Amino acid sequence: MKAMVYQGPGNRSWQEVPDPEIIDDTDAIVEVRAVTICGTDLHILKGDVPTVEPGRILGHEAVGTVVRTGAAVRTIAEGDRVLVSCITACGRCRYCRIGMFGQCLGGGGWILGHRVDGTQAEYLRVPFADTSTYKLPEGVADESALMLADILPTSYEVGVLNGKVGPGDTVVVVGAGPIGLSAILSARLFTPSHIVAVDLAPARLEAAKRFGADVVVGPGDDAAAAVAELTGGLGADTAIEAVGVPETFELCTRLVRPGGRVANVGVHGKPATLHLEDLWIKNVTITTGLVDTYSTPTLLDMIAAGRLDPTAFITHRFALEEMEAAYETFANAQDTGALKVVLTR
Known about the structure:
It is built from 13 helices and 15 strands. By secondary structure, the protein is an alpha/beta fold. The strands form three sheets. Strands 3, 4, 5, 6, 7, 14 and 15 form a seven-stranded mixed sheet that branches. A six-stranded parallel sheet has the order 10-9-8-11-12-13, sandwiched between helices. Residues 8-343 form the Enoyl reductase (ER) domain. InterPro entries: ADH-like_C, ADH-like_N, ADH_Zn_CS, ER, GroES-like_sf, NAD(P)-bd_dom_sf.
């Protein structure tokens, strides 16, 4: 089969690799129907995730058809159409038992495209298939379901829920890429008074308006002044960091009001300064997190009921064998306007 293989920092190739095989009784083999590329894949290619070894198949998001299952798999069967989650869960360890699947101690967590071969391939092996896939209802399209593999639950759980967004709040989202836009979309479910999007790219600020931001702050604008004007000088109730660089994290801590929350979602490759000399007296709560995907069934129900439409994220479509072109398009989003690319069989 063909797959996108990481060859070390700055190097990748769409190449022939062996077909995956059942290793454990809890595994399933899935034929990929639709797959996407994540900003985390770009972080890996930059060398920001040194735990990913050369030779690893990239990717952690897919929709596919089950073609084979191990002897212990009970909830899915050959022919089922499934969402493959970015988080794998053993379902038995201490963390899985409390819904913190991202911290799984039993061999799961974020492993696809990280510690085991991932989804950007014609076929993949899914460990712990019963607790790491979601059978899809007939009315949910592959492309819609694919947005639930990572970006929507990530922004919803790590940004909106950790940030405790509530009715009437002022919410600032710093970074209007796919994760930031997901945070805007899911924050709207809680009817905040204002959603402010901060980004350097005019195209992404236009996208933020389409997704529900009512105030946008671009290059040359004063984010603190904009938030102060909306809040009578208090600051934001919740500031969501959706980039993953020191400057944007530190900006969030300056934009939040006393008693407010900073919810960090971005993947950081460098240290950021925590200005406790300013924050200690302000009763500010700072949260971080890897997505657990406990919200995936809820979000899937909302899509099936027509209450949530994530297809607006998709700006470019490719055939699966056009993986190299898809990476070029996604990696150069400032020029191409790419939000999410989808590759289909």
